[in-house]
Amino acid sequence: MAQAAFVIHSRPYRETSQLVEVFTREQGRQSLVAKGSRQPRSPLKGLLQPFVPLRLGFAGKGELKNLHSAEATGPAIRLAGTALYSGLYLNELIYYLLETQTPFDEVFDVYQDTLKKLANGEEIEPCLRHFEFYMLNILGYGVDFTQDALSGETVLPDRWYRYQPEAGFVALEGPEPGAYPGEHLHALAGLELGRAEVLVSAKRFSRQALGPYLGGRALRSRALFVKGKRGSRSE
What DSSP state is assigned to residue 73? Predict the structure, then answer.
């Protein structure tokens, strides 16, 4: 049975083939061998690219399966500049956070919707934070922004809080480096990301919360983003 999918990563395999990591709606992340896909006249050559909505047919008993068919189900979702780096970042989150061969149909839909928002020019930072928060919640890593993780008391807007990984937020006697204002935590709970200072807190929290599950990896998309910004400044 053919499945809706996106390519999230690929690399050369042997002389003319590729190893392709795909994210499917029905069976989650899959590792495929695309035989002959690097040959000049292969019909797969232009298809197996990121951000192209696909329908794939594949089979195999082990973790590494053989790709049998591929067709585009729509035009490529066109991303450029910062939006392109952001799309690659989403791909890395999918690759590192989701275990293989486990269905995540809701994540697939949110991923595709986020790509379309980036392509349509919506503000990048809120798009990424919404996706990160969604991923944390769907994987069971989310926290309660409105309740003190130790006392169980309601987070107060005029107090300061420290984030404790895998636990939540704990009240402090006063502000200290890296602390979060309670007001910001209530905004994060409602995904109210309209203010720049709240967006800064959202990004810092995402980095802290996702870090342990990314295994300390230096994400390639972040490096490309920094390199791109440096290049634009030197022009």
Answer: S
- How many residues are listed for the chain in this entry? 235
Q: What would the pLDDT profile of 83-125 be if each residue is shown by its tens digit?
A: 999 999 999 999 999 999 899 999 999 999 999 999 999 999 9
Residue 10 has which token pair?
Answer: 């690929």
| Per-residue pLDDT tens over the stretch 146-156 | 999 999 999 99
Residues 24-37: tens digit of each pLDDT: 999 999 999 999 99
Topology of domain 3-72, CATH: OB fold (Dihydrolipoamide Acetyltransferase, E2P) (2.40.50)
Q: What architecture is the 79-235 domain classified under in CATH?
A: Up-down Bundle (1.20)
Which amino acid is it at 144?
D
The pLDDT value given to residue 46 = 83
Q: How far is CA 136 from the centre of its chain?
A: 10
Q: Give burial (CB, 10 Å; 0-12/13-18/19+) of 93.
A: buried
Q: Check if the beta carbon of residue 68 is closer than 8 Å to that of residue 61.
A: no
Cβ 134 vs Cβ 110: under 8 Å? yes
- Nearest Cα neighbor of 110 from 136, 84, 135, 147 is 135
